[in-house]
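B., you asked whether I could sanity-check this one before it goes into the benchmark set. Here's the sequence:
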Amino acid sequence: MTETTTLATQANTDLGHADNVIQSIYKQVFGNRHLMELDVNKSLEALFMNGDLTVQGFVTALAQSDTYKKLFLEDKSAYQFVELNFKHLLGRPPHDQQELMEHVSKMNTEGYDAEIASYTYSEEYLAAFGIDGVPHNRSSQSISGGRTINYTRGIAVDAGFAGYDAASNGSKLLNSLSTGNAPAIVDRKSVGNANGISIFWTTRRQVSANRRVMQKSVVSQTSMSATLRSIQAQGGRIVSISKA
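And here's what the prediction gave me:
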């Protein structure tokens, strides 16, 4: 389940906590990349520690940096770049092809920095993370107005615990967004039950001697939609969805 990281106090009053926040920001913005010396921006860290940058400002500055551009744009298609921006900065996949194309158009007409700022200074960003919360994966959460297919799309762009978002070229969602169909989850090798999907959910109904007990259902990708409908029909609430 997603653990939200938030800057609870001014950075320079709790250096250990502030360092944890900084590492969480790097991991999220750079798509789980193992941090190299070139990835670390000490000048931005100093501004953050001095209180001159919020988490929101730090995230924006890293995503507008030459390092981010080199990793996620220079040898990638515009579609993959936008797809990864949604993941890194809003914690979700694009909703549809129109949303994807709007951001491709924005980058072409308004430039790179404007494309990045359109995520980090959006109403959605502020509602989800505020100015001091680190962006995180929201595609596995039950979001009001969300659709089942977004769970599958979120899993499709998840590089895994040891994966890195720029390790492969090409958009993973372009065909799904164009057709409205669920994407195939085929990129990661699997052993045992690794092809399964774990759904964590709670229920208002009586379960043995407990109420609202956390439940776990492990299903295949093909049966995920039917399982979610069944859970919701019982009055259940989806807490998270992840690879088993």
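One thing to flag: Strands lie at 197-202, 206-207, 210-211, 214-219, 237-243. Otherwise nothing jumped out at me.
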